[in-house]
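Hi Y.,

Following your request, here is the sequence exactly as I used it, all 366 residues.
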Amino acid sequence: MLQQVLSNLTVVSILAVINSLLLVYYVIPKISWVIITRNLNEKPNERSSHKGATPTMAGVAFFITLIMTLFFIQYYDTEHIGLNLIASATLIFMVGVKDDLVVSSPKAKLFMEALAVLFLFFHNALESSNLNGFLGIFEIPLWFVYIASTILVLTIINAYNLIDGIDGLASIIAIIIFSVFALIFYSINLFFYYLVCLSFIGMLFAYLFFNFSTKNKIFMGDTGSLLIGFCIAFLSLRFMAIDVNLYSHFTFKPENGFFILMAILCIPLFDMLRVIGVRLLHNKSPFYPDRNHSHHVLIDFGMSHFKATMLLGFINYMFVILIIILGTFLNSFKMLAVFFIAFGLFLLLFYKLKRSINAARLKVVK
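Below is the corresponding structure, written out as tokens. Let me know if you'd prefer a different format.
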């Protein structure tokens, strides 16, 4: 009887969202109690957008829920990749917990993240040596696939980790990303990945209740942001490995698949590239912490956390729609030009905002 229920996609889809939402909603207060009791609250610093010490490590609830979800959706794991995901996610979870408790060096984090990627490479479902004509390129060597995939995963994990700076932003961006991936994987009958997306959407909606709360606030911490970033990267690799014949289900051209992925991840990636550029221009390390992130600029400009989060989420969502539309009739070279223009406009917008903020501060000083 239970097996019949779990083989019904509609039922399992509903359960994936509801169970994930309820489990995270139940577990987070327990985590908060432990953090507060053990005095492990995150203390605000000069970069923080919060004033008081706040519990963190809500990502523990995400990890527990992910493991439970993977158990109940194993019927749909036709590629048998669930164990690889569990092994990789466990390593990432360990890195996040350590970083939240004692802070890890960037090099140590990158090493462990790269190690986690190796567990994914033990499965060939994420391998694809065909770029489907992206910038005129088709077949590429398998060794290059492994290197490029590792760089892509590390980039996505850390880009996502960097946007976790104000209430709700990391969650809203992730909900948008998972919802787009869910539609993509559902349309090509990759239901295991579709259900993983639904589970994360449920988790994040439950987390938002606490993250936006004034009395019961908690942060996801690196425990959460690294895990979510890694799972987004995992889904990104599967998206890039989609068989070219399945592109008949999409409106966009196969050669534009990479650009669709970049559009889905546009806010984390654009923000990371912008911040690294600003730091290098000021002769600082790319890992140097500051308040140059897009969300910091919007907060300093006078926006509330909620408004800044909604604005960046709206930009991300609308850019995905735009790129999917353009990807139906533009080739990859023209799409590259579109991305350069879009990134240029993104840089210009936040350059203007930053100048306005600095000018206002100078007036106050005078």
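The longest strand covers residues 130-134.

Thanks again,
Q.
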